[in-house]
Amino acid sequence: MKKLIFIVLFACFASHIFAQRWNGGNNDETLFSRSRRVGFFVSPITEFSNFKHDLTTASGGGIGLVAGDFFIGGYGLGTVDYDRIVNEDFDRLDMGHGGFWLGYVAPQHEVVHFFSSVKAGWGAVDIEFDNNSDPDYEDTFFALTPEAGIEVNVFRWLRIGGAVGYRFMTGLAENPSFDTKDFQTMTASLTFRIGAFGRNHDRWDD
Fold this sequence. Notes:
The protein is mainly β. The protein has 2 helices and 8 strands; from the N terminus they run H-E-E-E-H-E-E-E-E-E.
């Protein structure tokens, strides 16, 4: 036991000395305390996906806080045309979800740059069957959608991004008219981020 305590203390001491030398004795930079860029934005979002080989559209929006090359916020999306494409099996199908939105954008000083994000949220599916013998279906789910693409700085206050991703879902109960895999699909999104994005405090100010 004494040997274990000695090893742990020695490791902590050694790592502390190494960190001091590596950083030149300066304090560590953290995401929020010494970020080169701080700002905020609101964002209309349009998402395209696939349901039973038909194109579907969802619309909504998000809001986020910018900290360096990262942002953190929330989002909400709801379908707008499922009722048009699933008339063979359903009279109407509605789906919506919302939750956390995390992203990474770099290098932001470039007109065209990399854009990636992860949406993680909870939602619900509401189905009305055209056959009166079948009860209506309601259930909740969890969705995770990682995506990556490019973003363009149009103005200082406007950025437009396009990305492709994949929506993972879990929690839906089985139903003979559809499968959870019908909702797990590739996505394409168009994002307009409007706000004050801050400035890099170096020669690459934008």
